[in-house]
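Course assignment 3, question 2. Fill in each field.
Student: A.L.
Task: Predict the tertiary structure for the chain below.
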Amino acid sequence: MVAIKSFRKERKLRPDEKGIEQIPLTRVTFDSHRSVCRRLFFLDNAATLEDLMNWKTNRFMNLGSREEPIYHIWADSRFAISFSWDGSDAYDVEIIDHGEKGFDF
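Answer field:
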């Protein structure tokens, strides 16, 4: 069973995403690296979307529309993992850096 089917190669930012940067895993800060890897492991081993929703520490969010959902799980206050879900697989997985200020939960 493989849950992650693809990583996003490039994307266009929406107007409300100014300053949000897609980054390779090598640019993740040392402090956040372990958290990001753990969330990628959770994502890869999830059989259903509900598996990810039920982990409170994932801080699961749907930032897309009903027609085109884009999900986020948070590694920490700065880095999130964004993905699309189809059946039992994640597509267009990317690590997003929300900057030094991070995201206020």
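Instructor remarks: Strands lie at 21-22, 61-62, 71-74, 79-86, 89-97. Helices lie at 30-45, 49-53.
Grade: pending
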